[in-house]
Structures are given as C-alpha cells and as structure tokens.
Predict the structure.
Amino acid sequence: MESRVNYTAIGVFILLFSVALVAFAFWLGKYNQDERQYRRYKVYMTESVSGLAPEAAVKFQGVDVGKVESIQINPHNSEEVELTLKIKKETPIKTDSNAILKFYGITGLAFIEIAGGSRHAPLLSNGKDTVLTIPSSPSLIRRLDESLGNVASKLSTTLDRANQLLSEKNIDNVAQTLEHLRSLTAQIDGYQLQIKTLLAQSIILENNASKSLAAVGDAAKSVKTTSGNFNTLVQTKMTTTLESLDATSKESHKLIQKLEASLDQGDYDMRAIAAPSSSELTTLLEQTRTLTNEMEITIRSLRESPSDLLFKKSTPKPGPGE
C-alpha cells in the first residue's frame, strides 16, 4: 500500500513537471517571437537625463512604439549619456529623425520622443544587423536654460550700460541742460507779444504781395495783348509799304525800259533831259534811303521793347520860333 502511494506521487510530479516544461517552452518561443518584432537603436545625449528610467516609454509622434532598455554613461565619451532604445521594426525611423527628452507635465517623469522625419526621407538603415544611432536634439528645458542664460547675460550688459548712463556726471549734465531749457522757455515767453505782432505783419505782407502779384499778372496780360495788336499793326503797315515800294519799283522799271528804247531810237537828248532831273533823282534817292533807315530803327526798337509804343514818353521837338 505504501509503495503504491509513492508511485502515484511520482507520476503526478512527472506529469506536472512535463506540463510546466511544455508551458515554459511555449512561453520561451513567444518571448523570442516578441523579440524579433523589435529593433534596437542607440541615442547619445549631452544633457542630464534626470527623470528618465529604464522601461520608460519611447513615442513616435505621440504614439508608443517601444521603451528605453538601458541607460549608461558612454564608455568612449564621459560627457555623453548612452541610451539603448527598443523600438518596433515597423516604426518609420528616417535619416532626419531626432530623439528628444520630454517630460509628463509637472510630474518629473521623462520619456523619449522621436520627432521629425519627412515623408520623402529614406529610412535609417545601414543594411546590417548592427545597432543604429538616432541623432539627439536638445530638450525644451535645455533650450530654455540656454535662452535664459543669453537673456541674463544681455540684461546684465544692459544694466551696466544703464549705470554708466546714469552716472553722477551725466545726471549733472542732464540737470544743466534742463535748466538751460527752462531759461530758454522763459525768454521765449517774454517775446510772445513781439512774435504775435511779427506774425500779423507777415500775414498783411503776404496779402499785399498776393494783390501785387495779381496786378502784375493783369499788367502782363495787357502788355501781351498790346504787343500782339502792335505786331499786327506793324505787319499790316509794313506789308502795305512794301507793296507800294514793289509797285513803284515795277513802274520805275517800266519807265527805264521806255527810256532805254527811246534812247536807242535817238528820240531824246539825254544830256538836255538828264540835266534838270539828275538833281531831283539824287534828292529822291537820299530821302528814300533816310526813310528806310528810320523805318529799320523804329522796327528794331519796337521788337526790343513793344511797350514803348504805349508807355514811352518823348519830348516834342520845339517848332520854329519856340
């Protein structure tokens, strides 16, 4: 009876062990299958990763795609922190993707965000099974720290310059300048009556100048009209005189032709005829020349100053016995 109980216990133990062994084999196969769905990447950061722990989430555009597998100091560069990320293989990590350290609100817990990656950029792959490296970008806290540092530096420089500007010497100079401005303002107030009088006189002078300019404009229009009328009159008179001279010239030419014909026929004694007419012809030519010269002088003076026809005053020559 006792021997039978021992065999039963052994059989139960062997059966349970076999079941556990089979379950472990299935679990181990599933684990290996799960491992084949992930790919590991390296990320090197030069900033503090405080708040980031192993098993922290890795997100791609806000979607969980993996976790942080390990965190350690880079053995080849003590200024860098080496992160090993376990990310699903179907995650499209591109050559222009960046790993950024981010935080959950104000809790202080950190995670890794994979950002960037344009649609046309190639996938990050070297064709081998070696671990790929994702470039890192500074976190928001790092950028704020750098910006605040720059702002603080510029603010310090501005305060130093403000202290130099507000030195005792500059304050005294500003006080003297204000005192001079006050004195100048008081002097200007004392001349307000004279300034008002000067402005009133300037307005009156401007009105008189406007009236004078209007009168000059009217006078210029009158002179222009008179000049046009005089030019018309002179042209008309000159045309009539020239026509008369032309007619006289033609008659003289005909008379000369008749005289030449008569002379050729011997009808006149030229010496007897020309003796009494020679002096008269000479006198007529001299008078014609004098008249022509006077007309040229008159026309030239009128062209130079047409207003002399109306405004020039001449002293009449005294007559006989005056």
Residues 223-309 form one domain. The chain is about 60% helix and 15% strand. The chain has a mean pLDDT of 77. The helical segments are 2-35, 140-165, 168-190, 192-265, 270-304, 308-311.
